[in-house]
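User: Fold both of these, please.

Assistant: Here is the first one.
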Amino acid sequence: MNEIKYRIYGKENRIMYSWEEILNFDSLKDTLKNGGKEDQYYSPLLPYTGIKDKNGKEIYVGDILKGPTLYETPENTATTYSHWKVTYGNCSFYLGDSPIDEDIDWVSEECEVVGNVYENPELLMKVFKMNDYDWVAAKNEEEAKNFYEEFIDREEIEEYFVGEVSLKDKMHISIDELPDEEQRVATIEPVIHRGGETCVLRSFEWVIKRDNITNPCIIASTEY
């Protein structure tokens, strides 16, 4: 039987509290009384999955795991990696969209905890370079703006434009095929293959551009 314990994130002081700390501090015990629901001060209770990563670190809901998506072979020059967040729903723990218990051996032998959604949200941003611009895929326009302000060191966005594109049935495209017009460039998730770069297209995009010739930056946000 899996050990039952939790963590919780303090929003004001930005501290992740362990199960022992929750049990020893009265203010944290109050979260147990309200069923562990999220409020203005704390995250919801984040349960332990009962699984450890390849380094022996316990995996909790809210953690971000890094794992291989393409292994090095004679055809592929290097192993590539992706990040997934751990969630709970329908009485199961999930890694991305897949139930974590379907790949326990792979998770415990190949994956590692690299952060969590509260302290390291940027790890879930898909960052890549294209046409001398930096791109970041986010969940929505607001998240893209927040990322822009927090990580690009700009307090206000004075000049930007928003563009939207529907990709319909075409789901793969190479960088060379992308149109030059920035408003028409689709959000992409790079997947590296030997001999070139193939990109997986998403359905929609929102684009925010900083007009700076010396350090151009575009933030692309998409539903995914």
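And the second sequence with its predicted structure:
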Amino acid sequence: MTSRQFVKERKFDIGLSGFTYTDDRAKVIQFSEPYDNSESLCQGFLVRSDNTFTSLDDFNNATVTVQNGSVQQQYTEQQLHGANVRFVTALEDGALELKVGKTDSCRGKCKSGEGFLANNPELKLSDTLFAVSDAIGTMVIMPLGEPELLEAVNTSIIAVKDLWFIYTMVK
């Protein structure tokens, strides 16, 4: 079960793990204001260090691992028509498949992929990126029909963003 499903079924009050908005998701969960826009702008690939892919066309006939139900799955389906797609439940599983040679690449947000590089020198982020159709950003998710919770989360996000803005201006 994914974090979105846990939130939808009210097993969790909120989900805070780089969630991005889609119309389909908004039918079953509600989204906060964005708290970070940097991750949604860079949608790339983890590949092995010796990988030479230089364009999306190079992924034709390659095996691409992607998290099932993710925005990255949507980009993969829209832009990699010739790839062999393998689905995993978590980015970590895709990175492991990449390390052991079960896949040629693992789809993810660039920022998420960077976390794997420090402990996995045999991997790198590909220079090839998806053309992104939205720059909405990452958001907190919560069950539908919780206006007080949504207001509290949005108030907190705005306060932190305001403090960050003041900090960066003073710095």
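The chain has two domains: 3-38+136-170, 43-125.
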